[in-house]
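Deliverable D5.2: sample structural annotation.
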Amino acid sequence: MGALRTPRETWIDAGLSALATGGVDAVRVETLAKVLGVTKGGFYGYFADREALLTAMLDTWEHEAVDNVLEEVEQADGSVLDKARLAGRLTFSDGRLLPIDLAVRDWARRDAAVAERLRRVDNRRMDLLRDAIGTVCSDPAEIEARSLLAFCAAIGSHFLAADHPGRTREEVIARAGDLILERSTGERPDGAGA
């Protein structure tokens, strides 16, 4: 019986880990093979070259960051706003997706194709926010502004080093989310204007 090949998904996961910790320049076939304890020959059974791996990594990230998150959100109980909060926690908490997401954002600054992929992912995320915020606000301009604020807070909070005297970062982020998601002044419970 021949030796077992390292599965394709293992190469992709190793690539995503390298991306998350060292950026796109850290994704090297030789380095990944060494980390996996295999020869790089098995890599070429799945991928024509490094670019093919990078594309597969982006496909996996997009699927996990959007499709899997939306599937979990759809299956969850709670209001549309609860589901939007869940999507944010799944995506931007300190789990697997956050460091990959931040690395993809950095990569997109230098690669137009990656920037277009990121735009597609962010547009799907913004659609979820618009739908959620639209349940507490009917003004399209305010919905868009609140969606932008929510998204910027979710991403930007990871770059902010400020202290919050008397409060934890989590408490402040939760309150910011409440402010963004609360019913608009002058709005009736049915969402119509006053």
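Annotation notes: The domain at 57-181 is CATH 1.10.357 (Tetracycline Repressor; domain 2). Residues 187-194 have pLDDT under 50 and may be disordered.
The annotation will be released with the project's public dataset once the embargo ends.
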